[in-house]
Amino acid sequence: MTASTLVNQAAPADRPPPPTFDLAVSGMTCASCAGRVERAIKAVPGVADAAVNLSTERARVTFEPGRRDNAAVVQAVSAAGYEPVLETLDLAVEGMTCASCVGRVEKALLRVPGVVAADVNLATETARVTAAGIAPADLVQAVEDAGYTARPVSPEAPAAVRDAAKEAAARRDARHVLLAMALSLPLVLPMVLGPFGVDAMLPGWVQFALATPVQFWLGWRFYAAGWKAVRAGTGNMDLLVALGTSAGWGLSTWMLLTAHPGHDPHLYYEASAVIISLVLLGKWLEARAKRQTTAAIRALMALRPERARLRRPDGTEAEVAADAVRVGDRVVVRPGERVPVDGRVLEGASHIDESLITGESLPVGKHPGDPVTGGAINGDGLLLVETTATGAEGTLARIIRLVEDAQAGKAPIQKLVDKVSAIFVPVVLAIAAVTFLGWLLAGAAVETAVVNAVAVLVIACPCALGLATPTAVMAGTGVAARAGILIKDAEALELAHRVDTVAFDKTGTLTEGRPSVVAAEPHGLDRAEFLRLAASVQAGSEHPLARAVMAAAEGAGVSPLPASDMRAVPGRGVAATIAGRALVLGSRRLMDETGVDIGPLVQAADRLAADGRTVSWLADSGTRELLGLLGFGDAVKATAVMAVSRLRDAGVRTVMLTGDNAGSARAAASMLGIDEVVAEVLPEDKAKAVADLRTGGRTVAMVGDGVNDAPALAAADVGVAMSTGTDVAMHAAGVTLMRGDPLLVADAISVSRRTYAKIRQNLFWAFAYNVVGIPLAALGFLSPVVAGAAMAFSSVSVVTNALLLRRWRPAAGGGAR
Question: Is the pLDDT of residue 162 over 70?
Fold first, then answer.
């Protein structure tokens, strides 16, 4: 092949290279894995080629021109059963003023190679980017190219990082507002005093001198942001304000310069100056209100103790930075101090105030062995605490991250707003142009045409559209967090308001989860020996029923025998070899599968089940001999009945999912007032049971607390985990309740419905305001000053309406709603 042939086959020098995407993939163990990932990626529409390297665990994807879809590639890899390695980066973005800005920043970030998803929040002025192998500098550059400024922030506490800068900006803005109003007041006074016969009109050149600093100094921010938007080929609110007020100022200056000597022309300096003053005032009030929506996070951050009192091995104490404490260290907590770390009480007894973390209004008693949470306030006792988690792994840090994640996310309804915002400014500019030409064609003076076009530009407000959803989400998630309800993301918040069915796992959710043995019926042996064998089978297990059996044996004064070959029989019970005998302890289903005749004790079992007791059977699986049964009772939580009643009042159907026998489950459900029971459900079938409940268009919330509840939580429309349970359950849930109070389930649905109502109200007013205001301005029924005032306060009204959510109170806390 000749050199000329190579040149001819090469791509033209001016053709851009095809877009590529490098993705790290974990979970591949052999060449067939790499081949499977490669085939999955190549099946994605728009992918031209894919090469997967097993040794580096990376995939290089080449797209067809104009068809890049990183997110689809990530989904394809996940669907193939492997784990795409992604990271989340947070940026603080400055210069955004309206919903159009949000869309522009998101598009700029999504164009960066390696970015899978980008969520930009106008209310928090942050961008959360999910990407694969990308440097923060590339993201910052993309935002700056779009006409804004950005900087990476720590995911640990982005709100804290920004607070000082925001306070300084707020003080500067307040000074600008006061100065703008002081310069605008003399221009407005003639309009106010005129109807009373007082002529206070200032000479034209004095008006020029007062209005020009307002226009080009205090209003410079609108020109700067508007110019950035023009350079990026789009528009925003600042551009509308800059064009509108410049037209008014320019018309007045032209009329002043061309006026005949001795003739005072009608000037519009007061309109442009007052519009800028009102918009500045509106922006300051809006920023002040937005800071209040983050009050929940700031309150949580204030709980972080900075110092800890470390107990050294030699018994001496030293005060150190809380960040210096490590897992396993022992810390001393004196009365009245905040607990510096998550831990377990080793010595001492006290009462702990955890109200700001769990929403529990009463102090909680703590004794040796009990867990304590960092940030809680110690009462009247001295405690020695062994550290179990610190820093980012502590409960408080995880709560803050969860609340910030929810506030940074975007509700599904926001997608409609984004589509409208993308075309909003160009449409408004077109309407203003049509207004100007229309009035001229109708025979009006240029002055009238300009004034009405200015009114159109000024009254249009994309800000209210951009703030309607995120401010309500921030206020709702914040007030929920203070009540002990952690909402994982905006999508969970939006879904929860539609919930019409709540499925409860019984044990630990509606009951205390601390069962005790209330009946022991031996068959063919004495009670003490029966309890000894039952305890021997359960020895070493952490299951609540196992602990109840051990406690009953201890109370009877018997000790368990050595056991071997211990194993769990999922969803049925346990098995072990005791003194050469193969014993099984578990449900009636386990007895049926083992071939044991339970006839002699069936009546006793039925009586216990009718009373709502859980029954377990003990048998010798080798001889198929029945040895007896145990009846367990688990006290119903004090607020369970009220919780079910509140859900029924809210129009929500309640269902109990439990592995217990049907009789026991029906008895408990009847006492609680639950509508439907699904009993004898194996752990692996709970997810299917939830899926069955979702048929027919039901929106289902699943409430659970254990590892075996995690699949069901994920299968529900909204998973609700009680933090008294496991981290696995919390991870699978969209909503986490910080204490095991069933009333919080009703509260979570209540705050979700209240928040969604605020979102709908805000969006209605934001859309209605523009739909009504723009035509009125175009038809000449609104002066530019009135239009400017309306625009300035539309955003303030939306944020203020969202802040009314802070008045919501949970019933679980005993407050009024």
Answer: no
3-state secondary structure of 735: strand
The pLDDT score that the predictor gives to residue 1 is 42
Q: Check: CB of residue 99 under 8 Å from CB of residue 122.
A: yes
User: H or E stretch including 667?
Assistant: helix 662-672
| Cα–Cα distance measured from residue 376 to residue 310, given in angstroms and rounded to the nearest whole number | 17
Question: By C-alpha distance, which of 642, 622, 598 is closest to 745?
Answer: 642
State how far the Cα of 87 lies from the Cα of 2, in Å rounded to an integer.
46
Catalytic member of 69, 173, 329, 505:
505
Buried b (16+ CB within 10 A) or exposed e, 515-530: bbbbbbbbbeeeeeeb
What CA–CA distance (Å, rounded) separates 694 from 804?
A: 33
Residue 505 annotated as catalytic: yes
**Could you tell me which of 394, 460, 381, 328 has the C-alpha nearest to residue 727?**
394
**8-22, 56-70, 246-260: segment of lowest average pLDDT:** 8-22
Per-residue confidence (pLDDT) for residue 454, from 0 to 100:
84
Each residue of 717-739: pLDDT tens digit? 888 888 654 454 455 578 888 88
DSSP letter (8 states) at residue 338 = B
| Angle, alpha carbons 693-697-700 (nearest 5°) | 45
Cα separation, 752 vs 131, whole angstroms: 30
573 pairs with which residues across the strands? 569, 586
Number of helices (H) and strands (E) in the chain: give both, helices first.
Answer: 28, 30
Check: pTM over 0.85? Answer yes or no.
Answer: no
What percent of the chain stands above pLDDT 70? 86
Phi-psi region of 275 (alpha: psi -120 to 50; beta: other; left: phi over 0): alpha
Q: What are the residues facing 605 on neighbouring strands?
A: none
* DSSP letter string, 770-791: HHHHHHHHHTT-S-HHHHHHHH
Q: Which two tokens stand for residue 31?
A: 């060449």
* Digit-coded pLDDT (tens) for 4-45: 443 344 444 455 677 888 888 888 877 778 888 888 999 999
**Residue 116 and residue 88 in contact, taking contact as beta carbons nearer than 8 Å:** no
End-to-end CA distance of the chain: 82
User: In the chain, what is the greatest distance between 2 CA atoms, to the nearest angstrom?
Assistant: 123
The dihedral built from the CA positions of residue 178, 183, 186 and 192, taken in this order, carries a sign that is negative
